[in-house]
Amino acid sequence: VFGYDYNTASTLESDVPEQAIRLCFRYGITTLDTSPYYTTSEKVLGGVFDKVRDEFPRESYQIITKIGRYGRTKADFDYSAKRTRESVENSCKLMKTDYLDGVYAHDVEFVSEQIGGAGQEGFTVDQDGKIKQEDMVRWGLEDKDAGTIRGPGDEKILEAFGELFKLKKEGKIRAIGFSGYPLPTLLRIARLIKHHLEPIDIMQSYCHHTLQNLTLREFYPLFVEAGVKQILVASPLSMGVLRGAPPPEWHPISPACRSATAEAVELCKAKGKKLADVALGYGFTSVKPREAKAGRDTPCVVGLSTPEEVHEAMMVYHSIYGQGGASREGRLPGEGLGEQFKDQLELEKAVVDTFKKHGGLNWTWAVGV
């Protein structure tokens, strides 16, 4: 994550970004996620791509960036066709490429209309992890409502995607979609775009495939039905909730979840493990249920800035899914791995049970800027 929000200027101006990217590519991590919103990220990446080109030509890695969000307030969102095209062209210029492998409309829920409390805090599934039919109606997710434009926000989204599809046909983008948080809103928008234009290629969901929130598993087949070809999952540590230290003060997580986090840290420590490693070990699994016939496995997006962070993430991955030999097939916490992963499985289940006991399992925070 090569922006000022996570790194100092001196770090970004050093050779640390180049070292981190070279290491990622050598490990086989070849898809990078960025955004104009991440301050200097695209510019830093452009400089790195120049330096590593001798070892890693452009066709050896994938770049996914975003359009639409350019600052911290609602006034900083611009989904107009003109700004969408300008943003894509500027991203290509900064990252010194003729094309982008993927482009998301960034944080689409801040532009779309909010229907039926879909962006409010609370639970989008019941205690058994199931979606209630009355909620589907409330969120505007009945089949008959798929093409319903709810207001000017929805119109802005369709305008942006109209331009993105043009850019895709021109060969400047290979895949288009959106990123966002509240799953009911994302599903409604995916259906809306499919109805008026065509299905989206990619979607990034964050904080809904974690040991604190497993909601994406229930929504997964609905996104597949909406024509979403590839779902990527981000923030397996729930934006710091599962990092092993108290969640950041700014984090919108509930007090119940904060209490559960503190208890989960001690549970892992008693077994000689770190909560972050246990959470990441689960986060790397696919959301796609093993029994599902349709859809693709879901790659995991992890924020990394330094070679040390790259090594740490890959150590967790390889301990289970590399040298450990386990499958990334979709599974529930505490299930689906061999006996050699007994501690990992027991702790996954213990962490989930802890959030459930405190009333924080599958709790979703409110949308807000």
Automatic annotation (TrEMBL):
Transmembrane segments: none annotated. One of its GO terms (biological process) is dehydro-D-arabinono-1,4-lactone biosynthetic process. Residues 19-314 form the NADP-dependent oxidoreductase domain. Pfam families: Aldo_ket_red. GO terms for molecular function: D-arabinose 1-dehydrogenase [NAD(P)+] activity. GO terms for cellular component: cytosol. It comes from the Eukaryota. This is NADP-dependent oxidoreductase domain-containing protein. It comes from Rhodotorula taiwanensis.
